[in-house]
Specification:
Length: 186
């Protein structure tokens, strides 16, 4: 596995080794000892254990986010795409962080096998770049409705450059009504 820090050092891109031949291919999508060791190389702590797996399917232009969970159910997430393409975004919402309000984004595809690690304290969102995009993620805590929060996907103070390429954005009602970061209940 190859680990690469992003412009926000706590957010890490993980690229599993893929072994292929005439029969097809094999990859180890998750290995706890390698995951912890890869984070440790950057001086990052091991996350709490993963306790929930989620899987969504979206059509092109569906934008989910920016979502987060407050303590005591804050979630770290390890995310990947198994079919299709998505642009995935992490926004630092940790009070007092030197990168507070900054974002990083990476294209995750079934072809590139990249994964993104977002520790607790980040808002998360993605836009499906093609139909039938399957998005999987592990979380370090279970979903708790009373702890969920959201931030406007198009908050001008954050300034995410979504690669929409003419796609019409489709949002859930809760995402249409999400406040900007400066008004969010973090």
């Amino acid at each position: 596995m190859k680990f690469t820090q992003t412009a926000i050092p706590d957010v890490v891109i993980i690229e599993p080794a893929v072994f292929g031949d005439a029969r097809g291919w094999f990859m180890e999508s998750f290995n706890l000892p390698k995951f912890v060791a890869g984070l440790a190389e950057f001086g990052l702590p091991a996350p709490r254990p993963f306790v929930q797996d989620n899987h969504s399917c979206s059509q092109a232009g569906v934008l989910r986010g920016l979502h987060f969970q407050r303590t005591p159910h804050a979630q770290g997430k390890l995310v990947r795409v198994t079919k299709g393409r998505a642009f995935d975004v992490a926004v630092d919402i940790r009070s007092g962080s030197p990168t507070f309000g900054r974002w990083v984004g990476v294209e995750l595809t079934a072809a590139n096998n990249k994964q993104l690690w977002l520790p607790e304290g980040f808002a998360h969102g993605f836009v499906a770049l093609e139909d039938d995009t399957h998005f999987l993620y592990k979380t370090t805590d279970v979903y708790a409705k009373d702890c969920e929060g959201s931030i406007a996907w198009n908050d001008p103070d954050i300034g995410i450059r979504w690669p929409l390429d003419g796609l019409k954005v489709h949002l859930a009602a809760k995402d249409e009504q999400a406040p900007c970061l400066k008004h969010a209940n973090l």
